[in-house]
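job 3f2a | input accepted
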Amino acid sequence: MTLKSITAAKMKALDQSAIKRYGIPSLILMENAGRGIADLAQRLVREKARILVVCGKGNNGGDGFVSARHLANRGFKVKVFLLGDPSDLASDAKINYRIVKKMGIPIIQKSLPRLKMLLKQASLVIDGIFGVGLTRPVEGIYYDAIALINSSRKPVLAIDIPSGLDSDRGKALGIAVRAKMTGTLAVAKRGLVIGNGPYYAGKIKVIDISIPRKLISMYTT
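job 3f2a | predicted structure (221 res):
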């Protein structure tokens, strides 16, 4: 069966339709995404394994925070690495960051030497750096972080799409995370199945985040 896919623009419209037409709060969509990622992570590692969640400042990072707290509640040894300042986090991501912090889950910020050390200790890396909104080449600390993740050779579970991959063209924007598995949200993104997408995405699993099927069918091909 061919995997249905969607462009970034259509995915954004689908999200907004779910929020506005059906009244599904964006926080619920994020909660379902993060819990779905936690479910996939649990299949990939042994009990009480060390899991490193690498988060950017957008909603992809917010999904990462949600997955971190679910995994911590299930007994895994979870640490979060935040690429940026908490003050720059998107609103829903900031809410989940604060919950993670209050739970006492370790959050490490910006230090690339610390990231390198954390990668050595981890059994699994969850990639929550960039989502489908990325359109320009990866630069700076983000480029360096992705390079470290790839060079660590640790198994990676990408949230929605491997960070750095163009979600419409399946092309690395300078650099992209190479994942063992991608938990894509609601519908597979076009870039996962064309171009070099399959190389970076690994095994693709579609996560139900509670968007009605009838609505999804209006936006997919």
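job 3f2a | The chain has nine helices and nine strands.
job 3f2a | closed
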